Fold these 4 entries.
Entry 1:
Amino acid sequence: MPELPRVPLGRWIDSFVDLLRDNLPWLFTGIRTFFATLLDAVEWLVHWPHPLVFIVLAAVLVFWLRSWQFSLFTVLSFGLIWSMDHWDVTMDTLALILVATIVSVAIALPVGIAAARNRTVSQLVRPVLDFMQTLPVFVYLIPAVFFFGIGKVPGLIATLVFAIPPGVRLTELGIRQVDKEVVEAADAFGSTRNQTLVRVQVPLAMASIMQGVNQVIMLALSMVVVAGMIGAGGLGGEVFRGITTLNLPLGFETGLAVVILAIFLDRVTSSFRDRAAAAEA
Amino acid sequence: MAAIKADGLYKVFGPNPERGLKLLQEGTPRDEVHATTGNLGAVIDASFAVQPGQFFVVMGLSGSGKSTLVRMLNRLYEPTAGTVHIDNEDVRALGKEELRKLRATRISMVFQSFALFPHRTVLENVAYGLQVQKVAKDERFERARTALQQVGLGGWEESKPSQLSGGMRQRVGLARALATNADVLLMDEPFSALDPLIRRDMQNQLIELQQELQKTVVFITHDLNEAMLLGDRVAVMKDGQIVQDAIPEEILSAPATDYVREFIQDVDRTRILTAETVMVDPKGTLASGHGPSVAAREMREQQMTDMYVVARNRRLVGAVSDRDVTEAARRGIQRVDEIVRHDYATAAPATPVAELFDLAVEHAMPIAVVGEDGRLLGVIPRVVLLRALGANANSAGTADGGVTGPDGGVTGPDAVGSADAAPTATGAGHSEEATTDA
Ligand SMILES: Nc1ncnc2c1ncn2[C@@H]1O[C@H](COP(=O)(O)OP(=O)(O)O)[C@@H](O)[C@H]1O
Ligand SMILES: [Mg+2]
């Protein structure tokens, strides 16, 4: 049997990566510096208040958004994290998630809007999103480390790849779902495309967009542990340390902190979504 | 000079509109073009003129291209071919900015599903067109208030659309269109989504407003009665084409095609009084969740011995008498819907009046007129039936007021007598059935 010639795809990619790294070092340094600065700033912000102050603020927020029961849960669960002495790493993780969310939304919103307004854009974006979502995490973790080294920035970038697609999808869906006659009405009174977008389409897609933000946050959280493996620190790093050193108490406690953070962020963002939905009714 | 003039308008939807257009212009039948090329001629060679202050009605069955036609007038849909002139200005030649200006200041539109902005208050909705024109806040809210007063909605400024009933929502839609002071008003089936009684109110209100404001109106409907009542001129559309364009009397006396003739037979049928045309608003109804003591007080206030009970969406649940209610209050029953009875008569909106007499004799309560969805649309007390029987039909309802056939008015007994032979049409959409059973 004649031997099938081997396509050296892996080597090509390798050369391509080398090429990028050798010729565009300023690009990667630039991206790295940008994200590192952003992360530092947000980390400083969440570490700044005393844990007690932070817990009170969070409790007031969820009381206003939801109920006193959830407010109580917030006080008890965050108090538990504090008393277990995992406060600082939890705040590191919160900062990472906040930055990942802000950047994801900043990218997903305009892309989703463009896709909703233009069929060609939509058709181009869709396979890219599919690719981003189906690619196993480790496949892009490797180049991320390669380009940006070990630490928080590659962790953040890997998180972005994972978290952006639902943001784009739900933005596009939300805008496309706005009642056709309502959009026609805006146009019929002489709105520009941008006025229709800002005054009608985006407000009426807000519930769907907030659902997207919620998913972005949840996916970012699920990446925390993975990011911890490449030195992003935070709760993920602790969980990973717990696993590798067979330190069950540490693994359990920090794992629990991740869950608490997840519940808190999920409930808060879904309240925003519910409020947006009520405003549209 | 015509306020609106359309010449040879075409709109072709599909993968290759230009090819569809060419075939249609060569005279290929619409169905054939659609079957062979997948291109649909939604509007085919439509030409008409509307004079300033004229009320121009476009009537046709669902799918005949009415919405598409009206949307080409302000270029919400870009015509595939043909021209539109508004006050001698070629609308298709306008640039983006000029088109926006035209829409903001000279043409406004009212929609079938109301198309209000749900996240804005009533006042902000009405002021929208002025906001687009960058009219200062004080002035635009002032003008929006005036428009709301014109449609009888003063006092509802700060409500959200979701808090209003269907009829009120469409009044907001109308006020929004009036607020810009545009001379041309496009109305795409504005009343089709409303209950019959409300629709009648809205038609009457529109007639009054039009007498005062003298707008140039293009009004779309699939309801023949509505067309005859409102139109100074009526164009009948079928499969994308205008098959007749004439004053209402002429449409009735000299139908241009068999299709129009079928439509008119439908008029003859609807001139026969139906439950829908004679019914009146129930003076009071009870909510199914109310307790018996609340119900008792309500009945005392309205001085009624029997009342219909409706669920929140106005679905008819049953009826109660004052005696049952008092008894229930004594026994400590919580909700009136637990004690309703069903010994009353119901009728579909299209039931001929002739069929109602026996029902009326057999039951003490007014006949309940119930829509297909089970909602209570109106009631027919016995006195109303007697009036319909005795008097000239014109005095019984308003929906037939504008229909003056070739032979003048319709007399009650005749019309009622022939009703037995007429098939029962369904609800407000009788005209939809014209081709199938006429
Ligand atoms: N945007 C569109 N794309 C494709 N086909 C359409 C579109 N709008 C309307 N049509 C078709 O054009 C025809 C006329 O529709 P329409 O103007 O809405 O009729 P009407 O308002 O009289 O019910 C229908 O067959 C409809 O399916
Ligand atoms: Mg239509």
Entry 2:
Amino acid sequence: MARTTKIKARSKGGATEILVLVSHPMETGQRVDKKTKKKVPAHFIQKMTFKLNGKEFADANLGPAVSKNPVVGVRVSNAKKGDKVSVRWSDNMGESGDATTTV
Amino acid sequence: MNNMKRRTFLKGTLAGSVLAVAAGSGLLRPTEVLAAEWPKGGFEAKSMDDALNALFGSSTTADNGAIEIKAPNQAENGAVVPIAVDASKISGVEGVAILVEKNPSPLAASVMTPGAAGFLSVRVKMGKTSPVVAVVKAGGKLHSAKKTVKVTVGGCGG
């Protein structure tokens, strides 16, 4: 299933904040479907890697406790205007996505 | 004379190879961290200590006032609680983790930052009113800060 990944970079007090939004259900595996009375299988993003000009600078691990349609923010101090920032995520069911933006 | 030169040459290569090994292991460490698998044990851990042990290899933390947690005092909807941890006042931050103490699995999210500032923001689910703990690894030590968030409607289960 196609999921949209959005990435936004904005400078904030000397550092650059990278915000990533992924439309993703983030199922914990604890929730029970009201109709079928069965547990909804866990389905959540596990890894998010952030790159600045192709070089990895942050490696985030997410757990099922992160809200659905997660917005994850990290900051990088040495980004300049025009630098390329990209993110790649993958979840526990093998889905993945990526997005790129410029500072 | 020729023999002497060979000696120095041999010594030189020996020292060189030792250096190369040291540099190799030093260089390897960050890549190992980067290539690290998703820390399953940390996220499945049922207690704070277990989660920290699995993630950082230690559960001893020291309170540090320089860590700033931005979280609401009261969250009406436990399914979406915005939390931001700012540890930019600490130098040499290697990793940041956000834990919700009273969730079934406390570890919510973590980030390893080889080249980034010590900052992480996520929206997390909270089952009930609980302290939110930010743990920052810097200089081989763990620093922590805590803030209690009141939850009116739980966000786990449905």
Entry 3:
Amino acid sequence: MSQTVIDIQNLLFQWPGREGFRLSIPNFQVDRGERVFLQGASGSGKSTLLSLLGGVLVPQQGRLQVLDTDLTRMTSSERDRFRVDHVGLLFQQFNLVPYLSVRENVILPCRFSQRRRGRALESADSLELSADRLLGQLGLDSTYAQQRVTSLSVGQQQRVAAARSLMGHPDLIIADEPTSALDADRQSEFLNVLLGRCNEEGVTLIFVSHDQRLAHHFNRSINLSELCSFNAGPV
Amino acid sequence: MRPLLFLAFASAWNRRTTLGLMAISIGLSVMLLLGVEQLRTQARESFSQSISGTDLVVGARTSPIQLMLYAVFRLGDATHNIRWSSYQTISQHPSVSWSVPISLGDSHRGFAVIGTTTDYFEYFRYADRRLLAFSSGKPFVDIFDAVVGADVAQQLGYQLGDSIILNHGAGGMGLSDHADKPFRVSGILKRTGLSVDRSVHISLEAIEAIHLDWQGGAPMPGLSIPAEYVRKFDLAPKEITAIFIGLKSRAGVFQMQRYINQYKTEPLLAVLPGVALDELWSVVSIVEKSLLAISALVVGVGLSGLVAVVLAGLGERRRELAVLRSVGAGPGVVFMLLAIEGLMVVVAGSLIGLSGLMVLSMFATPILETHLGISLATWTLSAESWKLLLIVMATGFLVSLIPGYRAYRISLADGLTPRL
């Protein structure tokens, strides 16, 4: 497997039926183990890019390879499978399934992916132990494991979501403003644990935020407007 | 499949109050539907089993349905009687193989008293040509002997040799009774599930005997004939209410029917019990069918309620669906999740309905048997009921596909980020 995790060339995406909106990325590569900070104002096409990387959307033109896999040549169910096998996703807020316990939320990707399940069991005797260990590493001790996620604070919920995105050792984590609901102290605390885990597990991280102040935590920082020739108005 | 069921259960458990209420309302509608169906089947069964092997039922001229009602079901009263001489003429007709006269009009604590001959126990058949059988004792021999049906014996706690007092007319309140002439229980019949169970059988002579000192439906003032003297009187019956006739050959049945219907001396009516039962049932079945239709509608209302509830909940679950997609659940899984949830509620509802019906029928069986004569004693579901239950569940699954499809569309449109 090559060192390139994400390879985008001459990509063009247009929402069907919405003429005005285009996202075009001439060239974008991310290497294995990189932790990339993608900065962009809201409405700048961040979510669209993440949906493309996550395999929910498909570009009309260009090359879109994730982990040497051409997403444009896959069916939507193949992309669903690929996503859960290789990509951990982390969102701004409300990442969790409200009716499952903290532990069950963390295990969730392993319920849908044999690969993630197998990888989680490589380093632990059971999925539960693996989840509890990840939670512990993110600062949530075992007393939280059985709790309902709705009883946690927003900061704690984001840690659970982070643990879930790391569960079963995915190759790539895509985080969409996971810290925007946290206050400044919590933000850097959260970032530190997340980056620490990614570092130790050798996971590639794409971190999207509008907040330039967070950029110094990352070894590479890109402004989305530099990356894309993006057009939100009429062409 | 396993994560799917687990998630569906967890999700349903999370909204257990709403879904539980939904399941209960579906349960009640299923209970109604199955209850009506059970009643219907049982009623039709006891109905069609009420008489068998009798070729003609004869009474004074009235409508065939009314004749069946009072002669077979002991419902209502005869307007006229048949003269004993007419009975003798008819019973001696060459094509008649056997004939059983019955005389109605008296009662015993709410149960019909029927005056007849011992031929009744020999020829009257029900269900699949079954004869009446005695659980103890034997047919009446003495004038004041009585044979009671299974329900009479059970409900009034009668044993062989017990003394009973008959009432005049249908009233259970003994204002004008035959207290001066008590009867002795000589036999108890086995249960049949028919009106026989709720009848007291005495001889035609006994009917005459208890009315010796009566005239025009009331005791004659100043005249009282003690029981020990009745044997000195002529106890030959003067009138009877109806006749059950068996023919030597069924082929002659229409000829015999015409003969009786054109009987010169008095206006009589002969009916073929099978034909009359069908006619009677077709009257009842309108009610029965509309009841079934109404309960089917109620189930429909329950199921649409389920769809409405699940659909309404979908709006607030968009985030949850997006999260599930982000951890690898495809739109197909989301679809199944919602469909399974609906199906679970329908299955739970059906189980609630089924067990509710069991409990209810345990309490209702004695009441129904006493008041309507409908026996629910064997309470296994009929094939028809199982079919209905399966239809309900299948329909439930089909309508659950509606929220499933809606969730599928939502999760396709939303992708990983819910639009609220």
Entry 4:
Amino acid sequence: MPLALQALLPFIALLAAAAMVRTRPRNPANGWIAFGATAVAAGVAMVELFRLSPGEHVDVPYLTSFPYADLAIRLDGLSLAFASVTLVTAALLMLARQLVQGDRREPWLGWLLTAAAAGAVILAANLLLVYVALQLLTLAWSGALDETAPRRRELRLSLQIADIGLLLAAASAIQSVGTSAFSGVPSDTFGVATFFLVLLPVVIRVGALARVFSGPAASVVFEPAIAWVAPAGYLLLRLLALMGGQLPDQRIAVVVFAGGALAAAGLAALAIWQRTGARLAPLLIAAEAAIALALSVGGDPLLTVASSWAWLTLIPVTGLLSVRMPRESAAYGLSLVQLAMIPGSLAFVGVLLGGLALSARGLLLGMIPIALAVVFALVAIVSNARVARSIQLDVATAWAGALLLVAALPIIVINPLVLPAAGTVRPVPGGTIAANLLGIRTVAGSWPALLVSLALAAVLGLALGWLGGRVPFRLPRRRGRRARPRFQLRWPVPVQSPTLPGWSRLVLWGGFFVAVGIAAARP
Amino acid sequence: MIVYLPAVLFAVGLLVVYGSAGRWRQAGTIAMMVAAAWSLALLVDPGSAAWAIGPLAAILLHPSPSQRVRSSFEGLTRRGVTIAASMLAALFLASRLPIGENPVLVSAIPWFLAAVGAAWFVSPSDQPERLQGQVLMTAGLAGVILAAVPAGPTTAGVAGAMALMPIAGVRARVPGQLRPMFDGLLLLLAAVAVILAATTPAIGRYDLLDLSLNLTGPVLLATALLLVAGVLVTPVGSEWVALLGLLALAAAAPSVRWSALAALVAVATVLERRAERPAWLAVGMLGITPVLAALAASSWSPRVQAVSLALGLVLMLLAAGTGLLRVLALPTTAFLLLLAVGSLSAGQLVRFQWIAAVGALLLGSRALLNTVMQTSGAREGLRDPLIMGLLLLAIGARDSLGLGDLAVVLLLIDLALVRIDDGGARAKGWRGRSLSLARSSWPPSVTFAGATMAVIADVQASLILGLLAALTWAGLQLAPLVDRHHAGAPARERPRSVLGWIGPALSIAAGVAPALILRMLRLSG
């Protein structure tokens, strides 16, 4: 099969499924069609990833009318790793939704289009195409053809405006080197200003996790993992890849690292004071994203591996927490382990790798805020923990178990997913990190992941048996009052227009003619 | 002494016009016209007097009322001040832009003719006088340009014939039986223009006696846009007006080009008088540029030309809110500016860009101010002025990649064809969703494509322009919150037509395949 067709297969599967569900409304099989198509798309992405040689990248052009903005697909370790993880997460979310009883809403068309748009963002071969795909992604998950629609309006507008930063970055690349294609942009094209322009949409999406996502209001929520976390992580790592893997100014890197780490600590601290527990998960996911962001700007190959691990694993963790789970369920309990960032969780592996990298450079002190974030997260989790009354085998439980398994056996994802992604961002010398069945070995230290996970399981099991269903450490709850977020992002839509004096127009026109006069008079 | 006779005749004619009514007034107007033709024959060559055929016919077809309208003291004072000021301004301009060694009083006569027209337009005693004012302004503009940039008799005749258009705008309608055939012919011409633009590397120049027509890529695209707009969105029976825009774009001679634009504005403001003054000001600013190029001193001419072009465009954008001004005059002006900007030097281009940037800020600020102040009359939306601001910035970009030109075409399609009415907004199902998408700022709408290209083009030009374009694009995302589905209504008389889907379809097509339009611009540009 020609590569041009192979690269399109995920989109063909998703869009064909979307067309099918559109023509068969309310058909009980629609969910299975959506799940199947997304699973196929994920499988194709994984196959392409496995077939890729280390360091290899392929640009598959389809239309070359614009020499600086071809319609092309990029197949490299970073794009295929993110595409695989994102589509697998999307498929699991669809499966979880399909198995929910009693919810008769039909989200399949929107979800399939969102998954396709997310795939387009990740697989686009140039910055301009990424920008267009991001807009399509926002349209797909919001469904707001009418731009005045109130649903998620503030977030949608924030994303649309923040994404203009990416457009400016693409324009500056076109202005500098005549193209915005990833293959054609030298590593010194982008400066600090461009980095911050692209960082803006990343920060907005991470902020959406903290401020807008308040836990799954519906049985399954699709956009946090697929439309926010995945594009945010991919955008940041892709930009770093275009910049040669690190920022040109180390001071900026320090500032961004500090900002991310402190934000993580702050968000985790905020989680402690969440009485209702509904916003616990979003705050801690946002804290993990902030940690991933902090680790991304390091100039060390091991830090790049750590950040790739952190972003790639954050997608399925966010997906898991987008499924509504009873608080006394095993799935909820297991998902809290991921949020706690304790040894045995996916996030801890990333934190550990980051710590090892910084320690090797004598900068271990830089991990203090991240360590604080971990501690705060643990306190917040413990105060909200519930003992599972029964273990029900459902998608969420299996999903949570799988994530714990990956944390125990990181070799499952390090070699096929994380290393190719990190290797695209910057070269990772051989021997920097190696994974085996027992754990991870790096140039700066080792991590016996399997042993630690088994120990964690044993400790938790003993604790459950000893506590007998009661968790002793819990902060007192205020009953009967729903926690309200203090700061709300609101675009000002004036109900009653403020009045302005009549001479305002005169001032405006006067200013215009003065400016024209200056332009005319300048030499 | 004989060279001053045209001036004497003009003065006598002016006195007769202001002192009488009916046939005497008509005779006085004819005398002024003959004086202007005489001066042209003296300044250029006798063949240029062919310019007078059109204006004379217009005066004969539009006689003055036999009774003068009684004016109050304030009205008389206003008219007196207006005519005095306009004549003084004309004399000043004529003295600053002399034609060779000719006496100022001779070379000033076409200026005086335009000045009288402007005075009658600004302070008319009645509606017929206002219309005659438009005739004189159009004729005067053609005459001034002919004096500065001489042309053959055919060209002069065609330029002068534009003075008939204000009369035609009032009376001429395509007969009902012929309308389907006429519309079909226009659409066929549009299709041919698009195919030629997409496939033929060089169309070249066509000469009809001494009248030259240029048919390059941008002109062919503009032709298609104007013809489609003429069929779809002009008032019933006024489809022929699009041909004026065509003539303005295709004519090589500046006298025909700018007088055709003046005629287009005159016809456009027959029905919609809301923004006629800024539109005519724009025509004046734009029409003076060939005169400056030919007659002004080289020390200040390029500077004033750049300022004049930019100001003229800003004024036209301010005027082009609704009606024929928006769907025909604005695209014509924008394309003319697109062609004119290409000949500016680097320094003058920067000047143009400055004024374009300030103009874009003015458009957005003014709309915001009107929204906040909720002034009487139609509440202007924020979206259209922001798109016009992007259009301004894109015209000034003049980037080597051609993206600025592409952005201009896309945004003009949006303004002239897509975002002009609210038709179909309440449609359900796929049709309603398609219409919503076509009129939105989401990809693949033409708004999204045009704005994106404008930002990229302006970043090529300069960082500040790029940031301003990005800010404007950001404002465009917020505009729907402020607007209340304000819709321009260019054709109150246009009945619902099955062709109403063409605008949204063009939006999606242009948004999906802007590369095709870029190819058309580059292929034969």
